[in-house]
Amino acid sequence: MTSRPTRGRGRLALALSALLGSALLTAVPTQASAADGSVAVQYRTSATGATADQSEPWLKVRNNGSTTVQLSQVKVRYYFKADTASASYRFACSWAVRGCAGITGTFGTLANPTATADRYLEIGFTSAAGTLAPGADTGDMQLRFYQANWQTLRQSDDYSFSGTQTAYGDWNKVTAQLSGATVWGTAPAGNDPTDPTDPTDPTDPPGGGQTLFDDFSYSSHTDPAISAHGWNVRSNSGGPGVPGATWDPSKVTFTSSGGNSVMNLETSTAGTASSTVQTEVLTKATKFRNGTYAARVKFSDAPKSGPDGDRLVQTFFTINDLKAPMADDYAEYDFEYLPNGGWGEPSNILYTTSWETYNPDPWQAVNQHTESRQSYAGWHDLVVTIDNSAITYYIDGQLFGTHDAQYLPERPMSINFNQWLIDLAGQTSTTPRAYDQQVDYVLHVKDQVLTPAQVAAKVAAYRGAGTAFVDEVPAS
Question: Do the Cβ atoms of 316 and 299 come closer than 8 Å?
Fold first, then answer.
């Protein structure tokens, strides 16, 4: 586990050139765009060529009605023609006025393919995106999608594309739904977005499928099944965290929550290094690389006893060893929650970070991260997927961040959970206090990219069958 994330070298250079002065190609919506509580969509692109390495549908959503619109009730579809029948696509948000963390992108297939469309990209919003007052718009949403293998895509035959639309204008070749009703645009013939036969396409690549699943149904840290199932409960000294702190296996316990067995990691301190006890559980094998990683984790904002304020880090991550400073085959992919801030942050922040490499002394880091400054106290479903084109993070079923191919792993990794203190400066009291982080389950599916919904279904199937543990992932 490394320390503070710093922004790395991204592969994408944001296209922030001035808008061209050409005339807007204004399209008249066919459905109630000016009705009370309805929305309109504007479109432009900076990828104007007939072919490109990625398509860039930049969008704005505007409230044309007289009442406030919850963006979480809005879905926008951009229609395109797949380059091959087996092509898989990936979505990314490069920049958005309201923040990329509040925007989701999923792909689907059309029930009635046409000459210019057999797929769509559906843009949605989380509650974090907020609302639109009457007459307001979302501002710039600089979106993009690309083939999973980064092959050149042809966009000149895509229904929603226009290479001449280089300035924002109303665009009726995208559709918008508000609370399930289509209120803007015209879909390709025979493909109204409300068509119940329109199936979603998770764009899963083939291959792999071997699974690690653990429900953490153990009696204690001394249960021999823990080691037999490939886990190490840490006791050795060293970083990360407070120098001189100990890592105590006895503070890893197992309890019940919501009818499921959960693992509890307790970290405590009384304001000195010698009184600081940290916890970590990790796989003994470093055999995990591409695929889907998921865990249900309960973060804590406050100690269960004693004064609050310690600069705590609560985590779920994968990692391999740094063989030398700035070694280019290092890899690490983190969910890190800081309930009381740290690393220069004053309060709650959650990071997802993808690492290329680092130098511990003097400190130098090459990584890419996404952050959200809000409380994440409570249970959360954490998913990260890694394929040959990107690293994608989800929280509670919503896209949180997509990181570039530069940061893909070159060697297998272990799977880890830990809870530790950055330092002792956040709370200087010598009154003892203790913090809990809990883990409900962990899942890894080798070489397959699953959606959060597919993760939930797979976990439910294991539990429904009474399967508490399985490990089919071969040694690397």
Answer: no
Q: Which of 199, 178, 136 is nearest to 31 (CA)?
A: 178
Q: Kindly report the pTM of this predicted structure.
A: 0.61
Residue 379 phi, psi dihedral angles, 5° rounding: -80, 140
CA gap 106, 202 in Å, rounded: 8
Closest of 253, 247, 216, 267 to residue 436, by C-alpha: 267
Average pLDDT over residues 98-113: 87
pLDDT for the residue numbered 5: 55
Instruction: Give which of 406, 423, 204 is closest to 292, Cα–Cα.
Output: 204
DSSP calls for 169-189: EE-TTEEEEETTEEEE--PST
pLDDT in tens, 249-268: 999 999 998 888 999 999 99
**For the ranges 71-80, 99-108, 363-372, 431-440, which has the lowest average pLDDT?**
99-108
- Write the DSSP string, 311-325: -EEEEEEEE----ST
Within 10 angstroms of residue 319's Cβ, the number of other Cβ atoms is 21
Closest Cα partner for 241 from 7, 438, 435, 439?
A: 435
Geometric angle at alpha carbon 183, from 40 and 76, rounded to 5°: 65
Task: Indicate the SS3 state at residue 64.
Answer: coil
3-state secondary structure of 137: strand
CB of 447 closer than 8 Å to CB of 204: no
List Cα–Cα distances, 374 to 103, 336, 346, 397, 449, in angstroms.
Answer: 16, 13, 11, 17, 28
- Greatest Cα-to-Cα distance within the chain, rounded to the nearest angstrom: 72
- Nearest residue to 87 (alpha-carbon basis) of 204, 174, 207, 208: 204
In this predicted model, which residue has the larger pLDDT, 1 or 92? 92
The 3-state DSSP class for residue 364 equals strand
Whose structure tokens read 């501002």? 139
236, 281 in Cβ contact below 8 A? Answer: no
Dig out the tokens for 217 from the structure. Answer: 């149904």
Q: Strand, coil or helix: what is 295?
A: strand
Residues 319 and 330: their CA atoms lie apart, in Å, by: 8
β-strands 332-338, 58-63 pairing? unpaired
Rg, Å, the chain Cα set:
24
- Give dist(CA 155, CA 129) in Å, integer: 29
